[in-house]
C-alpha cells in the first residue's frame, strides 16, 4: 500500500500531536509497512481510505490509537547495553539501599518499557543480587504508550530469539519455564512489575516518586523542546537523591540544567539538580 504525500504529512502530524513521535520525510516506507495491516484490519483497501477514516475521527478515536500503536518502534532486549545495569547493580543500588535502610522502600520506573525486557531485567537483578531486600516495599512501575506491547509484557512470554538476546543463560534456567517454543517468566517475577499505559506527553496522574528512572531509547524519537518538557516532568517524579538512566546513545550534556551528570563505573547517570 502506497502513501500519498498529503496523507504522509497528515499521519506525521497525527503521530507528533498524539505521541510526540517525529516522522521525517523519507519515513514513508515505515508508514506504508506499519499501517498496511491496520488498514486491512479496518476494512480499508488503501492508506487513502484509512486516512479518510482517521480524519473523520479527528485523531481521537480508536483507529487513531491503533495507528499510533503501530507506528511505535518497540525494539528492546534484556539487559540492553549491559553496562547501565552493572552500574546500577554495583554502585547506584547499594548506595540507595543504604540510604533507604530505615524506610525499607525502593521504587523504580521504566518509562517506555516496550515488551517488558527492561523492567523484568531490573526485577531479576534485584532478586538475584539483593536478597537483603526481602520484606522491603519494592515498586517497579513499567509504562508505555502502546497497549499492544503492554499486553505482551504482562504475559512475560518470550520467543527463543528474544531470550537469546541479552539474557544470561543462568537467568533463563532460574527464572523462566519452557512452554512449547516459548519461554515464560515465573509468576514471582511477573508479580514484581506493575505495567500501565502512560503517554509521556499525556497525563501522569497517579504517578508516584521514583528512586531510579529508566527512560531509554524513546526521547531520541522526539524533538528537543518535547524532550526537555518530559524531562522536567520526570524530575518532578523523582526522589531528590534519585538516579536517571538514558539510552547509551543519548546524552543531556549541555542540554538541560534540570539534571547533573555523574560518571559512575564508566556510565553516565543523571541526578536531579537542586
Ligand atoms: C525503542 S523502545 C525502548 C524500550 C526500552 N526502554 C529499551 O531501551 O530497550 C521505545 C518505546 O517507547 C514507546 N513510546 C513511544 N512514544 C511514547 C510516548 N509518547 N509515551 C510513552 N511511550 C512511548 C514505544 O511504544 C516503545 O515501546
Task: Give an overview of the whole structure.
The strands form three sheets. This protein has a five-stranded parallel β-sheet, sandwiched between helices. The protein has a three-stranded antiparallel β-sheet with strand order 3-5-4. The chain has eleven helices and ten strands. It has 274 residues and is of the alpha/beta class. Helices cover 43% and strands 20% of the residues. The termini are far apart. The site of S-adenosylmethionine has 24 residues, from loops.
Which helices and strands, and how do they pair?
Elements: H1 5-19, H2 28-41, H3 47-57, H4 62-71, H5 83-99, E1 105-111, H6 117-129, E2 137-144, H7 147-155, E3 157-158, H8 160-163, H9 169-175, E4 176-179, E5 182-185, H10 187-190, E6 193-197, E7 210-215, H11 224-236, E8 238-245, E9 259-264, E10 267-272
The protein binds S-adenosylmethionine.
S-adenosylmethionine binds near residues 74, 75, 80, 114 and 217.
Amino acid at each position: 500500500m502506497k502513501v500519498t504525500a498529503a496523507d504522509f504529512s497528515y499521519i506525521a502530524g497525527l503521530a507528533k500531536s498524539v505521541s510526540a513521535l517525529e516522522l521525517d520525510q523519507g519515513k514513508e516506507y515505515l508508514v506504508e509497512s506499519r499501517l498496511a495491516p491496520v488498514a486491512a484490519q479496518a476494512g480499508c483497501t488503501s492508506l487513502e481510505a484509512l486516512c479518510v477514516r482517521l480524519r473523520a475521527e479527528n485523531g481521537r478515536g480508536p483507529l487513531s490509537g491503533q495507528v499510533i500503536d503501530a507506528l511505535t518502534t518497540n525494539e528492546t532486549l534484556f539487559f540492553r547495553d549491559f553496562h547501565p545495569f552493572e552500574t546500577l547493580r554495583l554502585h547506584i543500588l547499594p548506595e540507595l539501599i543504604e540510604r533507604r535502610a530505615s524506610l525499607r522502600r525502593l521504587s523504580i520506573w521504566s518509562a517506555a518499557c516496550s515488551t517488558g525486557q527492561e523492567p523484568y531485567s531490573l526485577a531479576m537483578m534485584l532478586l538475584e543480587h539483593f536478597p537483603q531486600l526481602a520484606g522491603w516495599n519494592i515498586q517497579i512501575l513499567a509504562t508505555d504508550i502502546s497497549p499492544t506491547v503492554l499486553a505482551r509484557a504482562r504475559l512475560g512470554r518470550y520467543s527463543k530469539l528474544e531470550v537469546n538476546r541479552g539474557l544470561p543463560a543462568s537467568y533463563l534456567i532460574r527464572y523462566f519455564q519452557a512452554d512449547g517454543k516459548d519461554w515464560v517468566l515465573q509468576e514471582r517475577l511477573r508479580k514484581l512489575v506493575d505495567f500501565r499505559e502512560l503517554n509521556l506527553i499525556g497525563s501522569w496522574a497517579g504517578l508516584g516518586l521514583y528512586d531510579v528512572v529508566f527512560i531509554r531509547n524513546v526521547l531520541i524519537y522526539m524533538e528537543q523542546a518535547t524532550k526537555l518538557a518530559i524531562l522536567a516532568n520526570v524530575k518532578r517524579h523523582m526522589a531528590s537523591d534519585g538516579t536517571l538512566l538514558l539510552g547509551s546513545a543519548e546524552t543531556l550534556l549541555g542540554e538541560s540544567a534540570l539534571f547533573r551528570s555523574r560518571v559512575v563505573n564508566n556510565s553516565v547517570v543523571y541526578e536531579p539538580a537542586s
